[in-house]
Amino acid sequence: MFDTTGKIAIAQLAFFVAAILPAQYVLFKHGLKGLLGWLFITLFCVIRIIGAALIIHDESGHNPISEAALIISSVAIAPMIIALGGIAHESFGSIELYRPFLFGWAPDLITHVITIGAIVMLVIGFLNFEGTNKSAQDMKTGLDLIRAGGVVLIGVWAMITAIVLLAVGVSVAVICLIVRILYTVLSAFINTASFNFRTGGTLAEHIVLDVLPEFILVLALLTAGIMSRNLKYEAEAALRSKDSQHPVEERRRR
């Protein structure tokens, strides 16, 4: 008999196994310009599938959830943050000549470096906080790192929001993402059994604050990706049209 965590893992496994196929389709259709965004959405689906499968395996054998499953589940949201930044970057690729510095390569690089740092803090934090034979100091250090990593992810979200909110079709994903991040962060700060990432919580709490935001986020982004699947061809057509209007500039480029 599965507990709350096991039931959620079953739902996640079913959803992300189904979602990974359209994610790969969108990745293929968007090509190199959309690689940064849609590759990380695919990666997010893969991580969720692996994490859910590990939890189901542990619970079906009546074993405690392994550290690997806990860590994979805790840091899986990070690729989605990078994906949102990549999608925003792709959305403004068609107006490259007119976009300000805000949409250039520098914000992408900064976002990736900070996000990787947050992932490292979360992984080290969970390694110190979870498991057996951990001292009180180890657990305190781990909890501090988890809190710090979560706060950093909120900061990254705020950096990306200014760009993503301007991209049609992903506003819902931005809102769902901050709900999901806040749930992880607040559960590290609120030391109660009913609202804590370690002790669990009610099934309704997990569904509303954990499962549904991720499901809606992925569905919103995949819908936007499918609707804009011909973006690269439209951009190429617009470029050809511009060249035909300025034949002198075209000859100079050649």
UniProtKB/TrEMBL annotation:
Domain called DUF7702: residue spans: 3-229
Is Zinc included in the keywords of this UniProt record? no
The name on file for this protein is DUF7702 domain-containing protein
User: According to the entry, what is the taxonomic lineage of the organism?
Assistant: Eukaryota, Fungi, Dikarya, Ascomycota, Pezizomycotina
On the tree of life, the source organism's domain of life is Eukaryota
Which keywords, in A-to-Z order, does the entry hold?
Membrane, Transmembrane, Transmembrane helix
The UniProt transmembrane annotation reads 9-28, 34-56, 68-89, 109-129, 150-183, 203-222
Against InterPro entries, the record matches this protein to: DUF7702 (IPR056119)
Name the Pfam families on file.
DUF7702
Does the record bear Transferase in its keywords? no
